Each structure stands twice: as C-alpha cells, then as structure tokens.
C-alpha cells in the first residue's frame, strides 16, 4: 500500500508540474530512486531559446523521510553544449526546520522544495545547456533524495 501511495503522489506531482509549465519556463527532472552516490553527477539538460532574456535558475529537490540531514550541500556546474564551464558553485540548502519538520510541500513522506540557484543569469547564446550537480554531503550513498531537477524561468521585466 505504501508503494502505491508513493507512486500515486509522484505521478500527481509530475502531472501537476507538466500542466503548470508555460512558455517562459523549462523544467528538467532526474529520478535518483532514493539514493545518490557521491561520485554520480546528475546532469540536467535543457534548451535556451531566448538567451537575450535573463533567467532565474531554480533547483527542485524531492526528499523523503529517509533523508538523514536537515540540509543539502551541492556543487553545481553550468555547462554549454561544448562542455565549457560557465559557472561553478558550492551550495548549501536547508531542507528542515530546527525541530526536524521538513520544509516544502507534498504528499505522504515525500516533500518537494525549490531553491534559488542563480538570479538574472544570462546565457551567452541560444542552444543546449546542462547543469551538472553532485552531492557534497561526505556520505558515499546519500539516502532519501528521490528526484532532482532544475527550472529555468524568464525573469519578468
């Protein structure tokens, strides 16, 4: 029963994300199946069609109750289509309140939270780009992270 409920929750969230997309937003998601090896780079690929408009880059993280920490450290690298590094950052995001209550929203034991990565980022040209993300939590296999994604949103004037 728990697996069915989890599947239904993820399905509804996915359907919600797809139905809410507009022309000013690109979403790329990657399933981690509840465990993230520290040596595994998650590559989130997307296309930029209007590079002249600055973008907000937002990480989407879905975690469950098996995640053992209140924060998540990441190393994010923005790459162009020739794998040239445009930006590389070490990041620390808070996933829970000091009392242990998860931040974000969601069904059952899965929570989704959005984290600002870049504001007003200007891509140098139209085309394919990717963001490589590795977990920097000093644990070989990090449990409890179900999905990782990125939203690219045009900055509103």
Please count the beta strands (DSSP E, at least 2 residues each): 10
Give the strand content: over 45%
Number of domains as seen in the coordinates: 1
Secondary-structure-derived class: mainly beta
Low-confidence stretches: 7-21
Gap from first CA to last CA: 47 Å
CATH architect. name: Sandwich
Summarize the structure.
Residues 1-23 form the signal peptide. This protein is mainly beta and 157 residues long.
Give structural notes.
The chain has 157 residues and is mainly β. The chain has one domain (2-154): Jelly Rolls. 12% of the residues lie in helices and 50% in strands. The protein has one helix at residues 2-20, and strands at 25-31, 35-37, 42-48, 55-63, 71-79, 85-94, 111-121, 127-135, 141-143, 145-154. The strands form three sheets. A four-stranded antiparallel beta sheet has the order 1-10-4-7, with no helix packed on it. Strands 3-8-5-6 form a four-stranded antiparallel beta sheet, with no helix packed on it. A two-stranded antiparallel ribbon has the order 2-9. It is globular, with a radius of gyration of 16 Å. The termini are far apart.
From the structure above, extract its key features.
157 residues; mainly beta; 10 strands
Give the SSE layout.
Layout: H1 2-20, E1 25-31, E2 35-37, E3 42-48, E4 55-63, E5 71-79, E6 85-94, E7 111-121, E8 127-135, E9 141-143, E10 145-154
Antiparallel strand pairs: 1-10, 2-9, 3-8, 4-7, 4-10, 5-6, 5-8
